[in-house]
Amino acid sequence: MTATPTLTRLLAGPPSKAGAEHLEAHRARLGKLPPAGDRREIIPILEASGLLGRGGAAFPVGRKWRVVAERSQGDAVVVVNGAEGEPRSAKDRVLMVSRPHLVLDGALVAADAVGATEIVLYVGIEHRDAHRVINRALGEREPELRGRVRLVAAPVGYVAGEATAVVHFLNTGDARPTFLEQRPHEAGVGGRPTLVQNVESLAYAALIARHGDAWYRSAGRGQTRGTALVTVSGAVPRPGVREIEYGMTIGEIATLAGITGRDASAVLVGGYFGGWATLDEVLERPLDPADRAPDRLGFGCGVVSFAGPDTCGVRATAEIMTFMAGESAAQCGPCVFGLAAIAEATRRLANGAAADDDLERIDRWAGQVQGRGACHHPDGAIGLLRSARAVFADEFARHQARGRCSVAHAAVA
Amino acid sequence: MNSQILWFATRGAGIVSLLLFTAVVVLGVMTSVRWQARQWPRFLTAEVHRSIALLSVVFLAIHIVTAVVDPYASLGWISAIVPFASSYRPLWLGLGVVSVDLLAAVIVTSLLRVRVGRRAWRAVHWTAYASWPLALAHGIGTGSDASAAWMIGIDAACIFAVVTAVTWRLLAGRPSADLPAVVAAIGRGSSREPGALR
Amino acid sequence: MVDVLRLDPIRCDGYGMCAELLPELITPDDWGYPVIAPGPIPDRLLDHARRAVDVCPVLALRLRRAPAARRPAPVSTPAGASGR
Asked: Which comes out higher in pLDDT, residue A297 or A101?
């Protein structure tokens, strides 16, 4: 399998090792943004481009901006979502640290398009480099920003980046998701129409504002056009964030990351909101949000994490389910108790101490948890659990029978 | 109306109000601790609590109206609403007025629950725990039957019922599940970022 | 337009009174929280549904009007944790 060179757009320019790109270099490379008046016309261009959101839901960006613009009376709010609470994702912070001005460009374009007078940069408090770089970038652009932009530290936590949680935090300091009748685009920060958009989505919008929708659509191998950032991790010689064309296959990504032969047996696609797959079965599968294969791999937030043959799938599942249970916002009974029960049972399974009906109960609880929270956190966890149950079926059966695991591993705490 | 009849009505309605109010408090506690028995489901406790509460308002109204219109007692309407404004035993009567004022807030916020919001509703509802002893004190301080053996017996029974209920409530701790504690307990066992895939 | 039951899972505290009053449509899960059957409420159960909504001590259950022939809700494309 030959490696296909990746197309770089966001990551074009100096390598990320070179650090943050300063304003002058950014303008020298890309030219200035179109004037503010023209930016108001961007929404149909975004819609024509087919740009999809990069936060995990792949919602069409143009439509999202239109919906906010329609409700805005010049008082909308743009929230730049750089929370990145997904543990195996690094793309947002890499983007913020190396191309802060591209992100800021996107925020300004969005603000003019939806009629917003306020821009909030919501960056995970643990991403210290990103905070430092963005602060400096804001300083470089102050005259143009006219005090409309503020940088806010998002709390640590998996659900802190969920749209209603973001709005809730900005309104009350509480980063837990809410269950209100009104969605953020209707009434969000301060009760005003609010656009919550991922940093990568905004960066692409900034490029489309300069180069147009035809340019954007010129990349991409399948139905979904354009390029996207992925974070490759796990049992790979060359992990890291890369920009790929939509439609690149998982096999090609594996090769890019340096995997040869039997290095990896399973792959986690999309993050903890995504699912596992047996690597051999998905080598030819394109990474494309439009690819709706029945086993629900999806694209999610672009995490592609490879597991070596010495990874116990049951153990990995136990660790991830424990993490997800611990990251619950603790507001809804089924999520709290369901994920806790599943986490405990998978830990027992992993440690070879399963009760007779543990596997059966895990499957029953999965059905009782799905769709019964105020946000989609439990749904993501259950989706991941179900894919693990399918991909690692043999391992689970062996562990339920309290037989020896095919992989030697330490007990899960 | 004959002052004697009004006076009997005031006392009678007052005593019935106290008994009903006591029952309401006990049922309220039973609702919040989620008590149930084989033939007595939880919803029944909640519904009976509300029904008796509304019934007690009727008797309370009779108690207040008959007292105010009674020419012998010479109370104006003001003294029924503003505490400690009466000329007759202002302190003891006033306690009853405070009790009724609190109760009025509880009833109104409960009828308008949907608009008031949970936190405000709860805060006002908790003042019922203050309203009850005030009603009891009012009865003991102003009641003409207070020193009669049967009245002392009634007062004692009501006190016993409420003290038992409140103790039960305190011992039950937090009847609703402590979700944050369950999640925090998990958090302590897991690492923030599960081990890298091997 | 039909009537549907809508539960606020954050307000819900597992009192279980709704399940007692409307067992045809509401069953408790392993932890006492209500699992509500989706879809419109049959006419014969409407009064029971209203009573269930009324009894909830925390106002977690509501009756809502919804358009009758509804497209089924899209299979949740869950919100990514990185935000959108």
From this structure: A101
pLDDT digits (tens, 9 = 90+) for A359-390: 999 999 999 999 999 999 999 999 999 999 99
Mean pLDDT over all residues of chain A? Answer: 91
Per-residue pLDDT band at B36 (split at 50, 70, 90): very high
CB contact under 8 A, C84 and A196: yes
Asked whether residue B188 carries a pLDDT value surpassing 90, the answer given is: no
Interchain CB distance below 8 Å, A326 and B179:
no
Domain ranges of chain A: 16-217, 227-307, 313-400
pTM here is 0.87
Does the structural domain A16-217 have CATH classification 3.40.50.11540? yes
pLDDT tens, residue by residue, C21-69: 999 999 999 999 999 999 999 999 999 999 999 999 999 999 999 888 6
Residue A332 has pLDDT above 50, yes or no: yes
What Cα–Cα distance (Å) separates residue A53 from each residue in A13, A120, C68? 23, 18, 31
Do the bridges between strand A116-124 and strand A149-154 make them parallel or antiparallel, or are there none, so unpaired? parallel
Among the partner residues B46, B47, B113, nearest to C59 by beta-carbon distance: B113
Closest Cα to residue B129, out of B17, B49, B29, B13?
B29
CB-count burial class (<10 Å; 0-12, 13-18, 19+) for A295: middle
Distance CA A238, CA A255 (A): 10
Q: Let me know if domain A313-400 sits in CATH 1.20.1440.230.
A: yes
Q: Report whether C5 contacts C24 (CB < 8 A).
A: no
**Positions of E strands within A53-193:** 76-82, 116-124, 149-154
Place of tokens 């991909």: A391
Q: According to CATH, what is the number of the domain A227-307? A: 3.10.20.600
Query: Helices A199-211 and A91-98, interaxial angle, to 10°?
Result: 50
Could you say which DSSP state residue C9 is in?
Answer: T
Best C8, C35, C84 residue to mutate vs chain A (most A CBs within 10 Å): C84
- Kindly list the structural domains of chain C, giving each domain's residue range(s) and its CATH number in brackets, ordered by start: 2-66 (3.30.70.20)
Q: Is A308 on the interface with B (CB under 8 A)?
A: yes
